[in-house]
Amino acid sequence: MAMVEEMSDYVEEEVIIVGAGPSGLAVAACLSLRGIRSLVLERDDCIAPLWRHRTYERVCLHLAKHHCALPHAPHDATAPTYLPRDDFIHYLDAYAKRFAVRSHLYREVRAAWYDSAKERWVVEAINLDTGRIEWYSTKHLVAAAGENDEKVVPEVLGLDTFHGKVVHAADYRSAEGFKGKAILVVGCGNSGMEIAYDLAVAGASTSIVVRSKVHLVNKEIWNVAMTLYRYLPVWVIDKLVLLMCFAVFGDTARYGLCRPAVGPLTMKLTTPAYPVVDVGTFAKIRSGEICVVPAAIKCVRGSTVEFANGKQHAFDAIVFATGYRSTTKQWLKVQI
């Protein structure tokens, strides 16, 4: 605090928003419509960096566009029902321009705390372009950095000896260069399942580690669930969704994809987990083009991966679709 009190060049703002993803942009736009000035601080070199820099090329929104519009800006009627990545990025760019969202890019927030004496938040950020520390003072602080911030890669014994390529899903763009190679995808969430499909379509010999139980749905079923959520109890929607899923997929447990005891919508609302929206992966699993490995990795020795069930296989590359963690608690110096 002493450093801030001695400085005269810190920036005064009414509201500071940390994170220029869809949530941060939406908050800035809503404030702007009410005549409230705000500033968005973003660590990356652009708005919506997750969509620009950390998504694979084939990704599309899993929900219909009317479920994915930001406040005061419905998607164009001529837009695809399920927007591809580039279309959604264009939408976010236009949104920021339309509502004149003010942003400082290349600003990594290092700390933020509330000064009760001054009744203002103090924000310390580093300008990644110049390396200089910048100070901000604001009446209101909005943490909009999201959950998908820092890559999570599990510790695997011997991974440093692996002869092939190791990438996180955040760095995977396409299956180019993987045709004819043996690829192991670790993680059976939406990213893992879709990357496995992308690899299989490209002609890679694809395996996917499935350790947890999975609710498999498709886009149409899940959009029905989202629509019914306004009108029916969650338990009723869960039963309807499971009936539709059985009609479409049959018993997925026969192929190594066991469903959780809790219903899919209940799971989404009460846990961090999310149903897997099938984009064609299940058909590849059913046909044998994608192999389900129902065990964790025990260790890696050269090109060989040994699993907890004792089986061993050689792979040319490993893709860790093992998620992210939020870094908000690292810089926000209050209990949340």
UniProtKB/TrEMBL annotation:
The superkingdom listed in its UniProt entry is Eukaryota
Q: Where is the signal peptide?
A: none
Q: Provide the GO MF annotations for this entry.
A: flavin adenine dinucleotide binding; monooxygenase activity
Keyword presence, Oxidoreductase: yes
Q: Which UniProt keywords apply?
A: Oxidoreductase
Instruction: Say which family it is in.
Output: Belongs to the FMO family.
Q: Which PANTHER family match?
A: FLAVIN-BINDING MONOOXYGENASE-LIKE PROTEIN (AFU_ORTHOLOGUE AFUA_4G09220) (PTHR43539), OS01G0273800 PROTEIN (PTHR43539:SF42)
Name of the protein: Flavin-containing monooxygenase
According to its UniProt entry, this protein's organism is Zizania palustris (Northern wild rice)
